[in-house]
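Reopening this one. Same input as before:
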Amino acid sequence: MSSLNVTSPIEVVAVFLILIGTIFSLLSAIGLVRLPDIYTRSHSASKSSTVGVLFTLIGAFLFFIMEGVFSIRLFLGIFFVFLTAPVASHVIVRAAYRSKVEMCDETVQDELKDLLEQDEANYHTETKDEETDASSSNKSEKATE
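Same output, byte for byte:
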C-alpha cells in the first residue's frame, strides 16, 4: 500500500485548494445541466467555474512555488480567468436578454426591464428631437438659398 508523502504544510494547502477547485468545477457542471434557463445556467457556469479554476490554479501555483519554480504562465492564467470569465458571461447574458430570451417561470424579479424601457424611451425621444432639428435646419437652409 502506498502512502502520501507530504513534506510540508504548504503542499497540504495546495492539495486542499486543488480539491476545492475540483468540487466547485463539479458543482458548476451540475448547475449547468440542472438549472432551467440561460440566465441561471450562465450564473452557474461563470461564477462557480471561475472559482473552481482559480482554486485549482492557485493550488498548482503554490505547489510549484514549493518546488522552487515560479510559473508566470500560471500567474497570468489566474489573472486572465479572473478577469475575462465573468465579463464574457455578463456580455452573453446581456445579449440574450436584449434578444428577448424568456426567463424561467420561477423568476421572481426582473430589475433590468424597467431600466431598458427607460433607455428605449429616452433614445426614441432624442432621435425624434434630432430629426426635428435636422429637418428644421434643412428648411432654413433652403429658405436662405
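So the earlier flakiness isn't reproducible anymore. For the record, The helical segments are 9-34, 38-66, 72-98, 111-144.
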